[in-house]
Design a protein that fits this description.
Blueprint lengths: L1 H44 L4 E4 L2 E4 L1 H19 L8 H8 L8 H17 L6 H16 L8 H17 L2 H13 L4 H21 L15 H35 L7 H15 L8 H8 L5 H20 L7 H21 L6 H17 L2 H12 L2 H21 L4 H8 L7 H9 L11 E3 L5 H11 L3 E5 L5 E6 H6 L16 E2 L4 H7 L7 E5 L6 E6 H17 L3
Amino acid sequence: MTKVRDALLEVVVIIIVGGLIGAVLAIVSNLFVTGVQWFGQQRAASDMFSLTVGGESLSFSSVVFLWAAAAVVVILKTGLGIGRWAGPADSMYAAHQVNEPLDIKTGLASTLAAFASASGGASVGQYGPIVHFGATMGIWFKRFISSRLSHEIYLGCGVAAAISAGFNAPIAGVVFAHEAILRHFSVRAIAPITVASVSASALGNLWFPHSKTFEISAVLPPLAEVVPVLVVLAPAFALVAICFMWALRYSAQTAAKMKTSPLLLPFIAATICGLVGVWIPQILGLGISSINNMIAGDFALSLLLTVLIAKLLMTALCIGFGLFGGVFSPSLFIGVAAGALAGQLLVLFGFADIASIISVAGMAAVSSAVIGAPVSAVLIILELTQSYEYAVAAMIAVMVCNLLTNRVFGNSFFDRQLLDRGIDLLKGRESIALNQQTVAPFVSQDYVRVKSSVSGADLLDEMRSRGHTEAYILDDDKQFVGKISIYEVISAVDSNIEAHIDRQPLTLYADDSLAEAMAKVSQFVGESVPVVDTATGQLCGSLAEGALFQAVIDVQNQARSLER
């Protein structure tokens, strides 16, 4: 009966946690998109900033709105003391360790900054910020609900709910949380994450009844005609994805090297993007209507090429120069543009009109390569189109594209962001945990310490009485001088030990990680290793091999327990 009661209680907690997180994300996700679209309508309808140039009336409202957005972003960053905006990469890292949890204030501020940027017309997306907001909300909920669920499950609930509400794709939300963020599957995690994902989709449809975000027709030619074309086009989609991710990194690196004040960089991006938007308004904001128009084949060939290049460059500029936002939506836009462009070129060369499926496949391929979630991308297409054929066709392009981008660029743009910060998620939770844990807590004070002036006979007696085969030599200021083994002490039994001291023994430092310590002692033979304070040079203690190995085993077991 006790087991039944505990199981029922856990089910209740799962429903409460998943339902609450799903409800919050349903509201936030829909309000985010609705708010951005409303501001976009105001920007498009504004004629207060129109000028006549060469007999043509041009509206510069995009520049003004983007200046306002840049001002809001700067005020948020300086007023709240935000050092760096947070996104999906931070959610991924938080799910793989517990020593550096998500910062609630940074998560909320990043969502507001992304909303301001997108509302002003910056070429950024909404899914990345909402995903991180979901992860932040999950961690925040954990503070108030006591349960056996680990922090990463709460985080995964928020991520799944964000994708589910954004695409109205609950299955994809569940898979995305496991595939892109948690990077593992567990029975305990699947239930609450599923509840959160389904709740977000159901409540979003209930509270915000509206047409689908993406209008995709489910009319498809026979797969035998489509699959060979997609196999040939997949490398082109991979090239587009790599160029996009490279441009994002290059823009951020360029901004970091510039001597311009970081507070001015968002205004530079706002000015350039706003001016480009005067002539190419399709690239401003989320671009949802433009995506639907490209899928429907309403864009001419020249316009497709123009918006493809402009969207890629302006997204890299905006995000790299501080107009914070997501890369998922822009990758959808760029993928659709690349697919539609390829489809129209095929028509010109006499192929059948399959531009619609090529556009959808391009959208799935490019976006999946950017976010590192190929299975989730295929499921999004399946749930958007309700077409098995569309999903299979998209899967061909997605898998080939991801194979190429993984070999050339990496697992995803977010993985590359973490690699730039010295974090490699591909090594797993155990590696991260070992790199985060320093050796300082494991040092022992059970060692023989003497001055260099002691005689060999006296030191030999002390080492015998205490059962040690090594001794550490300190000076009058407790600075570490060196180490001596019992064999050298025996050699110096009739004299002073100073001439027998090993002054450059293998040494660990207090701030060395367990991973670094294991690498250093891999060839070590002896009783223990001295651990020295990096700043003062004083001896902190000793660390025996057995104690080091046990510490490593304990940390590894703790990391593995998160995946059970």
